[in-house]
Amino acid sequence: MKKTLLAALFLGASIFSSSVFAADNTLTNDGTINFAGKIVATTCKVDSTNTQDPLTVTLPTINKSLLAEAGNINGETKFQIQLKGCTASTAQTGPNKDINTVRAFFNGNNINQNGRLTNKSGNGYASNVDIQILNANKTVLNLSNQDIATQDAESAVTLTNKDNISLVYYARYYATGTATEGDVETSVNYTIIYN
What we know:
By secondary structure, this protein is mainly beta. The protein has 1 helix and 8 strands; from the N terminus they run αββββββββ. A 5-stranded antiparallel beta sheet has the order 1-2-7-5-4, with no helix packed on it. A 3-stranded antiparallel beta sheet has the order 6-3-8, with no helix packed on it.
């Protein structure tokens, strides 16, 4: 009885699976996926004489009373990523547009779910304080958005075949509650993105 049932199941499965194949035992296509990309010969390089690695941005020392409530901000500090050797690319043809803008993409382990940078914790570090990053237009960046195409796409700098470009950003303290006194230290990685 068991052998008959198993044989019937096997026969039914083989008939069903053979119906997926065309008459000549090849699969039929349900659709097509195209992939496109671009490789460029010359891109900007970080200018190491004007942008150290790691780049250290020192925010001002402020009184904790300025960060007494969640949402308080203070200590806005400008910083720049200096690039050199930048040129627009027009030689490439095909489905992709020419490379004509450049910007930074931020990522790393210190980015919290609110898109800010989390301060170190422990003895000697301030609590309830994040670092918030803004672009050149002073629009707050949501760094938790890890989509390369959309994270701060609005502040891309146009390549105009000039050698040096400055990517301008701002950093500031952001209170997540009543701030306590102590040091603030965090970091973020960046990658130069071309569009």
